[in-house]
Specification:
- The protein is mainly alpha-helical.
- The chain has a single domain, classed as Winged helix-like DNA-binding domain superfamily/Winged helix DNA-binding domain (Arc Repressor Mutant, subunit A, Orthogonal Bundle), CATH 1.10.10.10.
- The protein contains 7 helices and 2 strands; from the N terminus they run H-H-H-H-H-E-E-H-H.
- The protein has a two-stranded antiparallel sheet.
- The longest helix has 22 residues.
- It starts with 6 loop residues before the first helix and ends in a 5-residue tail after the last helix.
Length: about 160
């Protein structure tokens, strides 16, 4: 039978030995959420590497793909979606434009603004990337049945919603 203990169990046990009166029970959940996020992001990074994409590149491309705005998307909206500064988004867009995955065009409603579009190559790469990322997601969730996935989603939503303003 495989060891069912994880890094968080070991950390909690060490805290228990170090300071038995310290309540570290929150680590049982928060520690696992953080560790899982780290491992999943790493696995996604590995699956995107052959496409020459970073996780942040994928975030931009998949947002453009999801929005599917015929007029394009304002860079400021992409920056808001990614929770980064407009300067950081400009750097990402510059890199993606050099790779031929996105293009900028004049905003038809505001001469001072631009809109960002996926190129046909960007659309193809994004479709491949989305398929690969969803496969990673599925592999992570493989130990859970449908009901457990629903429960996990509901519990995580209950934790995230009050913080996600």
């Amino acid at each position: 039978m495989p060891d069912e203990h994880d890094a968080v169990d070991r950390m909690v046990a060490l805290w228990g030995r170090r300071d038995p009166d310290l309540d570290v029970s929150a680590l049982e959940v928060v520690g696992r959420v953080l560790r899982l996020a780290e491992l999943v992001e790493s696995a996604i990074g590995e699956t995107l590497r052959p496409l020459a994409l970073s996780y942040s590149d994928f975030d931009v491309l998949s947002t453009l793909y999801r929005l599917d705005d015929a007029e394009g998307t304002h860079p400021r909206d992409l920056a808001r979606s990614a929770l980064i500064t407009s300067g950081a988004m400009t750097a990402r867009l510059d890199r993606l434009a050099r790779a031929g995955l996105v293009e900028r065009s004049a905003d038809p409603h505001d001469r001072r603004a631009v809109r960002v579009h996926l190129t046909s190559g960007g659309r193809a790469v994004t479709e491949t990337a989305v398929t690969r990322v969803l496969a990673v997601d599925e592999s992570v969730l493989a130990p859970l049945g449908a009901r457990q996935r629903e429960q996990a989603a509901a519990l995580l939503r209950a934790l995230l919603a009050p913080l996600d303003v």
